[in-house]
Design brief:
about 625 residues, 6-stranded parallel beta sheet, 3-stranded antiparallel beta sheet, 19 strands, about 15% strand
């Protein structure tokens, strides 16, 4: 493939929504040309949830989003670009769909018809849930309180809409199963009678629940921890074809020059997906939003031009960080906060935190598979569910990359993936010596495809779909906001443990990119980065003046001391309790200051012996 011929010179990203439409971009094409832009890089253009400002909550892949314009508007925009020898790159979202609003016809049909829906197989739903209340039903965690209380308050109502009865909860709208409401029943009377209304709701193919139950009970795959974005089974060829029906038409009409694939790590089989996508777009520039860890390479068998450029972003940013001052800045951070600089420990702790809170349902599903696998293997059938759960959380927390790409259907595991799997297994076994080592051997043997069977293959697929979200939420969205010795390093695809990049290292990176071929994006900032270039550049200056920075922080800290509210705000990463304060023998415990005031006490984890852990901090009465 002549990758260089496909490669854009410079892209300009546009976020399309009802406030900036295709026609607005058309008017600016001459301006983009003057800037030297070769391609417009568009956010998703398919129909999204009403009033979506970003477009990543696609509700219908078969329609252009009417809020941003018409097909004619798209044709005019691409024609104007062609006149100036420019092109259009489109961001696509194959992993998930928005389901929060009624605009998604596939999801609405599944809610109405359940397993009998023609679209039931389009979403990754666990119909045979171990939870008896969810067998054959979909959990919808949308209520502001427990279901029974919401029902008693009369906040659930059935009203007619377009000739059909529909269940409403404030702005939420839910279709009702065929014949679940008797034709001779008055809807007004039904909505005033909780007992009768409950009977109708219990007949539905979904179960309404308090929003806080989602992380623990959800029985459909989602995007990270967002319950309003449901995973789509594009690994199924029919689903793939329907998802890409309109995209295929645009490609045939020569309206698109490139594709940016959002979150390929969420897919069950990224390679198979990319093979099919390449067949649809043989002449297009295709890049993937793949976050590579330091030293990690993009899989060689992916038919793409490269990534969206996070690795380039972090290399360039590192050039402007003064490496020789790392120790001075790290020591000051530890002294000021009272925390040692231990990146590995923090990453493990935060990944365990999100696995035990945000991803409980994903962990439970994998534990179910593991118990099925263990029953057929004498060496493992005595292992308890709790041991499997603890070991699985530890193993996932120790995983060094976002995911591996083992393919059970092909019996394929790459050498780098084998290395990552063995490394995680050894580290997890060493960290949790209280657990049987056989558990970690079972994990690694499954992922290395040494074990055969349907449950084993399913475990591999679903585990590989979990490690990416665990890394993203545990590191990008948690560790990066807890470990701040130099915030410029806390960037998507970055490594806070690597303080700066030498000119020699940067040129070596560029040389490897050239040898590898392809044509990745060279991004310095994206819509997903934590900070823009100018903010990172200003922060990087501090690496050149560690003494001035340390003195300034101490001076500001002293100036702000008079505003301090103990145990409230502002605080440093670690809460410490001055020895001159006393814990009063009350329940819950109160903290008495020298001034005589007392406050409810929020304790660090683990809490000191005998002290209950509280979840709120507020002044006591």
């Amino acid at each position: 493939m002549a990758a260089r011929k496909l490669c854009p010179r410079a892209t300009y990203r546009i976020q399309f929504n009802e406030h900036f439409r295709l026609a607005d971009a058309l008017a600016l094409v001459p301006y983009f040309e003057e800037l030297g832009v070769s391609h417009i890089y568009a956010s998703p253009l398919f129909k999204a949830a009403a009033h979506s400002v970003h477009g990543y909550d696609v509700c219908d892949f078969r329609q252009l989003n009417p809020e941003i314009g018409t097909e004619d508007d798209l044709v005019k925009l691409t024609a104007a670009l062609r006149e100036r020898k420019m092109g259009l790159v489109l961001d696509i979202v194959p992993n998930h769909m928005g389901i929060a609003t009624p605009e998604n016809p596939w999801w609405q049909d599944v809610l109405k018809n359940g397993r009998a829906s023609r679209y039931a197989g389009y979403f990754d739903i666990q119909w045979d849930s171990p939870d008896p209340e969810l067998i054959g039903k979909i959990l919808l965690p949308v209520l502001g309180d427990q279901y029974e209380r919401v029902l008693e308050r009369g906040q659930l109502k059935i009203e007619m809409e377009k000739g059909e009865p529909v269940l409403f909860y404030f702005d939420h709208r839910f279709p009702l199963a065929q014949n679940s409401v008797a034709t001779d029943v008055s809807l007004d009377e039904l909505s005033r009678n909780p007992g009768e209304l409950n009977k109708v709701i219990q007949k539905q193919h979904y179960r309404l629940a308090f929003w806080g139950e989602g992380d623990a009970r959800l029985n459909y795959r989602r995007f990270f921890a967002i319950s309003t974005l449901a995973g789509v089974r594009v690994e199924d060829e029919k689903v793939f074809n329907d998802v890409h029906q309109l995209l295929s038409q645009w490609l045939k009409k020569n309206l698109l020059d490139g594709l940016r694939v959002d979150h390929p790590d969420g897919l069950r089989g990224p390679k198979k997906y990319l093979d099919r996508l390449r067949a649809l777009a043989p002449r297009s520039w295709i890049v993937v939003e793949k976050i590579l860890q330091p030293g990690e390479e993009l899989p060689e068998d992916w038919l793409v031009q490269g990534t969206v450029g996070y690795e380039f972003l972090n290399q360039v940013n590192g050039l402007f960080i003064q490496s020789k001052n790392e120790i001075a800045l790290a020591d000051f951070y530890s002294e000021f906060t009272g925390e040692p600089m231990d990146l590995g420990k923090t990453v493990r702790e935060k990944k365990i935190l999100v696995l035990k809170t945000l991803f409980i349902t994903e962990i439970n599903r994998l534990v179910e598979l593991l118990t099925r696998i263990a029953k057929r293997r004498p060496a493992h059938n005595e292992i308890s569910r709790e041991q499997f759960r603890e070991a699985l959380i530890e193993f996932t927390a120790c995983f060094p990359v976002y995911r591996t790409y083992a393919r059970p259907e092909d019996g394929f595991v790459s050498i780098p993936d084998s290395t990552h799997i063995k490394r995680a297994s050894a580290l997890a076994a060493q960290t949790r010596r209280d657990l049987p080592r056989e558990i970690f051997e079972l994990f690694s043997n499954s992922l290395l495809l040494n074990l055969q069977g349907d449950a084993e293959s399913e475990f591999v697929a679903r585990f590989q779909q979990l490690t990416g979200p665990a890394m993203a939420k545990g590191v990008e969205d948690t560790t990066f906001y807890c470990l701040n010795h130099f915030a410029s390093l806390n960037e998507v695809g970055g490594d806070p443990g690597r303080f700066g990049v030498s000119v020699k290292e940067y040129h070596e990176f560029c040389r490897r990119q050239q040898e590898r071929g392809g044509c990745p994006m060279l991004s310095s900032s994206t819509h997903d980065t934590k900070r823009s270039e100018d903010v990172r550049a200003r922060l990087n200056v501090l690496s050149e003046i560690p003494k001035e920075w340390s003195n300034a922080v101490m001076r500001w800290s002293q100036m702000n001391e008079k505003h301090d509210r103990p145990l409230l705000f502002p605080d440093r990463p670690t809460i410490t309790f001055p020895s001159r304060w006393q814990v009063l023998p009350t329940t819950p415990p109160l903290l008495s200051t020298p001034a005589g005031s007392a406050r409810l006490l929020k304790l660090p984890e683990p809490a000191p012996a005998g002290w209950p852990a509280l979840t709120t901090i507020q002044p006591s009465a």
